[in-house]
Task: inverse folding
């Protein structure tokens, strides 16, 4: 693959920019800032950004099928956000203690179930022993399902082309695993270790699959994207002009562009830190479901 030319799409200076989601029909990229809580929508041609400010840390979301809003998973619970006026309607409380945990990852499987990972992240002034929490699945029709997959920090969700594989990163352990996945029942099956990222390299954060079945991982704290083959071998490293990439999404009409969110963590750093980068990686991605059912 050729070397990538990297541009700054949005100089967001996000505290924790996350969860880029490409919607081709709108020629737009949705994304969030976890700690300066908001859902954003950037139109790719004009590069203008619309923002819906939120009252609590957001860890995942999906659009509503009617296009009039989103379902947002915050520390305080799951809500419907109306785009027209920014109003929130609560659907349910969080399935964990919000004093110690929050949502950290969210993505829809091919049938529109919103999968939500968690992380141990106590609120200011709360002292607690680190504890892992579960993986959850949410639908508009059925509410919560708890799955027996516990982690201190879930990340890296991605589904295979046929929906029969589900990739999950356990960032604190530096592990990326792939699971057999029953797309009809929404059930995880047998696990297979893909790879382990050395701690001195960084943490495996958000992930995505390309058209050839290679898994891309944002290496948080390492300033890189890694591309892994199905056997777990490291196929390629893309050096970034930032240290803290968080997640990526293939975008553009042919999914040949890659947008990468990043984090400042409230500190000054490299000039593009906290921004959204865009590059052409030389390979296209797989389409993703973006509506919760």
Result:
């Amino acid at each position: 693959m050729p070397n990538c030319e990297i541009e700054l799409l949005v100089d967001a200076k996000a505290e924790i920019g996350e969860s880029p989601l490409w919607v081709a029909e709108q020629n737009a990229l949705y994304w969030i800032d976890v700690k300066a809580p908001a859902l954003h929508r950037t139109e790719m041609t004009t590069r203008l950004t619309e923002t819906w400010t939120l009252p609590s840390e957001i860890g995942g979301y999906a659009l509503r099928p009617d296009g009039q809003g989103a379902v947002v998973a915050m520390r305080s619970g799951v809500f419907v956000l109306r785009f027209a006026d920014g109003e929130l309607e609560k659907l349910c409380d969080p399935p964990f203690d919000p004093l110690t945990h929050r949502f950290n990852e969210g993505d829809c499987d091919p049938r529109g179930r919103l999968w939500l990972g968690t992380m141990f992240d106590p609120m200011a002034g709360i002292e607690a022993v680190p504890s892992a929490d579960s993986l959850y699945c949410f639908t508009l029709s059925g509410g919560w399902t708890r799955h027996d997959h516990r982690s201190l920090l879930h990340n890296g969700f991605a589904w295979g082309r046929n929906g029969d594989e589900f990739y999950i990163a356990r960032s604190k352990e530096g592990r990326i695993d792939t699971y057999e996945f029953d797309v009809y029942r929404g059930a995880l099956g047998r696990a297979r270790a893909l790879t382990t990222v050395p701690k001195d390299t960084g943490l495996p954060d958000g992930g995505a699959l390309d058209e050839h079945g290679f898994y891309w991982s944002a290496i948080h704290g390492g300033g890189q994207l890694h591309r892994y083959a199905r056997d777990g071998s490291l196929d390629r490293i893309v050096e970034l002009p930032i240290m803290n990439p968080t997640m990526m999404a293939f975008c553009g009409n042919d999914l040949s562009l890659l947008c990468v969110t990043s984090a400042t963590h409230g500190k000054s750093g490299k000039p593009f830190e906290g921004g959204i980068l865009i590059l052409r990686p030389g390979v296209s991605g797989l389409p993703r479901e973006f509506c919760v059912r």
The chain has one domain: 6-122+131-279. The two ends are 37 Å apart (CA to CA). The chain has a mean pLDDT of 96.
